[in-house]
Design goal:
Helix content is 59%, strand content 0%. It is mostly helical. The longest helix has 16 residues.
């Protein structure tokens, strides 16, 4: 399930990585995952655990809180994107 928070964190991860001129492969090696996992984090397809977020922040030299900057209080933590809602309806 993808939601607004996952997408926001992924966007901030991508911004920071690019700002530093790092590749997905370099960040992946720093935190012990494959570059495909970083791709999934960056597009919001996979949720970033608290432990992994801490490792990513450390690898990128950023405070963990910086990944949440710019996220409004009106963000719905559990909201699904439209595609996910449609997929669930077809399965049911």
């Amino acid at each position: 399930m993808t939601n607004e928070i996952d997408r926001h964190l992924g966007k901030r991860l991508r911004q920071r990585r690019r700002m530093l001129g790092q590749t997905q492969q370099q960040i992946a090696e720093a935190v012990g995952v494959r570059f495909q996992q970083i791709q999934k984090y960056e597009c919001g397809a996979n949720r970033i655990s608290a432990a992994r977020l801490w490792l990513l922040a450390k690898a990128l030299g950023a405070p963990v809180g910086s990944f949440f900057e710019g996220m409004g209080d009106d963000v719905e933590a559990g909201s699904e994107d439209e595609g996910e809602t449609e997929r669930r309806a077809r399965v049911a």
